[in-house]
Write a structure and sequence with these properties.
heterodimer, A: alpha+beta, Chemotaxis protein chec, 7-stranded antiparallel sheet, 4 helices, globular, B: alpha/beta, Rossmann fold, 5-stranded parallel sheet
C-alpha cells in the first residue's frame, strides 16, 4: 500500500482542484492530523456520502458537508437560485463531489494503477461519527471554507 | 455549423453542469439531448439525429464503455464520435476507452476551455480561443 503521507497529499490536492475548479470555492486545509471539534461550530444537519473503491488496495471515502453549505454549492453548481434547489439536487451534487474527488485522488496518486469506484451513496452522519476505526487505516482531511467546514476521509480495508 | 449533443450521465446535476459548461465554452450547439444511462442513450440515438455523444463511465444499468461498444456495432451510430467524461485518470483505463472506440476523454474536474478545445478538435472546427462566456451571459434551461 501507498505511504499514508502520499495518500493524504493526493487527497488534499484533489479536494483543492475539484472545489476550486468546479465550484469556485476558496478553501483552506488546516495542518492538523485529526479533525476532532471540527463540527462544534456548525448549526443544522451534516450530510455524508460514501464511495467504495477497489484496486491495488481497497476501502472507501467519506465526505461530510453541512447541509447549508451543500445547498449553496448545489445552487452555484447548477446556476440556480438557492430557493429553487430540491433535496434531490443537493444529494446528487454531494455524491458527485465525492465521485470527482475520489477519482481525481487516484489520478494524482498513481495514474498507472486502475481503481474501480462504486456508485456513491448517502449515509448517516451519526453512524460515521460512532464508527470505530483504527487511526492506522483512516485518513481525515478537514477543510475550512468561508462559510462552514467540510471533511474528507479515506478508510483503507485491512 | 451547430451540433446536436447527447449527454449521458446518471446524475442530473452533472448533466446540467456539462450542458452549462458547453454553453459557456462557446462550442457551437444545436440541440441538447439527455440520458441517464447507456440504455436510454441507445434509444435516443435510434430516434434522433445526433452529431456527438458525451458519456460518463460509471453508471447503473449500462456504463459508458458498454454504450460506446454498442454504438460501434450499430451501423447508424458507429460514426458518431463518443467522448468519455469521467473521473477515471489511469493510463490503462484511458487506453481501454480509446481501444473500444472513444473519440477522446475529458477528465473531471474540467474547465470550459478544455471542453471547447476537445470538442472543436473532434468535430473538426477551428479553435480560435474565443467564445468563452461568463456564466451570467448564458441562458439556462434545465
Amino acid at each position: 500500500m501507498m505511504e499514508k503521507e502520499s495518500l493524504m497529499m493526493a487527497m488534499k490536492n484533489s479536494i483543492s482542484e475539484v472545489l476550486e475548479m468546479m465550484f469556485f470555492l476558496p478553501i483552506d486545509l488546516p495542518d492538523i492530523a485529526l479533525s476532532e471539534g471540527l463540527w462544534g461550530s456548525v448549526t443544522g444537519d451534516i450530510l455524508s456520502a460514501r464511495l467504495g473503491f477497489s484496486g491495488p488496495f481497497s476501502g472507501y471515502f467519506i465526505f461530510c458537508v453541512p447541509e447549508k453549505l451543500a445547498a449553496s454549492l448545489t445552487a452555484g453548481f447548477l446556476g440556480r437560485e438557492e430557493d429553487s434547489i430540491t433535496e434531490n439536487h443537493v444529494t446528487e451534487t454531494v455524491t458527485e463531489i465525492l465521485n470527482m474527488i475520489a477519482g481525481n485522488t487516484f489520478s494524482i496518486l498513481d495514474n498507472q494503477s486502475v481503481f474501480d469506484l462504486d456508485i456513491p451513496e448517502m449515509v448517516s452522519f451519526d453512524d460515521i461519527r460512532n464508527r470505530q476505526n483504527s487511526s492506522d487505516n483512516i485518513m481525515v482531511i478537514p477543510v475550512n471554507t468561508l462559510e462552514n467546514p467540510l471533511e474528507l476521509q479515506m478508510i483503507i480495508n485491512t | 455549423m451547430a451540433f446536436n449533443v447527447l449527454i449521458v450521465d446518471d446524475s442530473f446535476s452533472m448533466r446540467a453542469v456539462i450542458k452549462r459548461t458547453i454553453k459557456a465554452s462557446g462550442f457551437n450547439i444545436g440541440k441538447f439531448f439527455e440520458a441517464k444511462n447507456g440504455i436510454e442513450a441507445l434509444n435516443i440515438l435510434n430516434e434522433e439525429w445526433l452529431d456527438l455523444v458525451l458519456t460518463d463511465y460509471n453508471m447503473p444499468e449500462m456504463d459508458g464503455l458498454t454504450l460506446i461498444t454498442e454504438m460501434k456495432k450499430t451501423e447508424n451510430m458507429q460514426d458518431i464520435p463518443a467522448v468519455m467524461i469521467t473521473t477515471e485518470g489511469s493510463k490503462q483505463r484511458v487506453a481501454e476507452f480509446m481501444a473500444k472506440g472513444a473519440a477522446d476523454y475529458i477528465k473531471k474536474p474540467f474547465t470550459p476551455e478544455e471542453i471547447r478545445q476537445k470538442l472543436n478538435r473532434i468535430m473538426g472546427e477551428t479553435d480560435d480561443g474565443e467564445g468563452i462566456l461568463d456564466d451570467g451571459d448564458e441562458e439556462l434551461d434545465f
